[in-house]
Amino acid sequence: MLRALLSGLGWRGGIWGCTFSSRQPHLPPARLLSATELVSHWTVVFEKRGIPEARESSEYIVAHVLGAKTFQSLRPGLWTQPLTPWQLQYVQELSSYRLQRMPVQYILGEWDFQGLSLKMAPPVFIPRPETEELVEWVLEEVTQGPRVVGAQGGPLILEVGCGSGAISLSLLSKLPQSRVIAVDKGEAAICLARENAQRLRLQDRIQIIPFDVTLDGSWAHLLPWGPVDLVVSNPPYVFHRDMEKLAPEILSYEDPLALDGGEEGMDIITHILALAPRLLKDSGSIFLEVDPRHPELVGSWLQSQPDLSLNLVAVRRDFCGRNWEGSEISPNSQANKLSYSRGCWQKTQIPA
């Protein structure tokens, strides 16, 4: 769900753009000095102010101040040990940002995704747990399906709209022979993805390029790096009319251009589908994360574009049936079929 904000957080480097003010909102009584007592105090404060995931928010903040990623990973002795005055002030300051509905990911400055610790900073889109399912599906197809081999022994992958680099860097870390071209039109995203690649020492296998998929002829700039084996993207796919329904954490802090997919959520999706055949190998595939309403819309659109030689044949729903879906599309498909896998996950798949 778009409101999922807390999974896998923690950063020991501090809040993005953090400054300390003399104002100390909701200062707890002096006796509330232990980590456990602080979590309880701020949980109550957050609940009274209508902050989502109140206990989780307070646990992540207190754990971060004490140098851990999660409250549960703290040494038990730290749960009851008194905090220092500086630590108390730091907890209060970070909690004040949460009271302003800033996502915990931005407050702590880091997000765990597929086992990687990624730096996060607004307004770059926060990768959600659901997108980890898209990565796992790509890995499944690469490792269990027909062998995908690029010029250097592994797949060459293009990610459109890389944001923080979560998808690209996860694939690089799990596919040692792979290489990635990651593109995004946002300067903040390009800078953050490059920093994350450096932090994870994956910079030698990734090209991070400013690129706007909506510009006519833009695909020509990618030709020197192609053709590619896979295209993967978590594009903006929220229907424009649904944007106002998003949580304040999203509307106030994240880049709306990373979310708003236009009237039917298809604006960027169709650009990616039109671009892919120019860059994909004949045996290549496209993986997209989409809205549950999109498989039918994408299928209809592809039927109206026969020259693209793309067809939609399968759908996987996100874990526990939530309203996120992904799709895989491959060129030169001979059949146009929509299939659903059993269980909790369904995604859209189009084999060659």
Automatic annotation (TrEMBL):
EC number(s) stated in the UniProt entry for this protein: 2.1.1.297
Coiled coil: none
GO MF annotation: an example: DNA binding
Start and end residues of each Release factor glutamine methyltransferase N-terminal domain: 37-109
Keyword Transferase in record: yes
GO biological process annotation, one example: methylation
Gene Ontology cellular component list: mitochondrion
The entry's keywords: Methyltransferase, S-adenosyl-L-methionine, Transferase
Main EC class the enzyme belongs to: transferase
Catalysis: reaction(s): L-glutaminyl-[peptide chain release factor] + S-adenosyl-L-methionine = N(5)-methyl-L-glutaminyl-[peptide chain release factor] + S-adenosyl-L-homocysteine + H(+)
Ranges for domain Methyltransferase small: 157-243
Top-level lineage group: Eukaryota
PROSITE patterns in UniProt: N6_MTASE
One Pfam match: MTS
Statement: the UniProt record of this protein carries the keyword Lipid biosynthesis: no
Name assigned to this protein: peptide chain release factor N(5)-glutamine methyltransferase
Species, as recorded: Tursiops truncatus
Gene: HEMK1
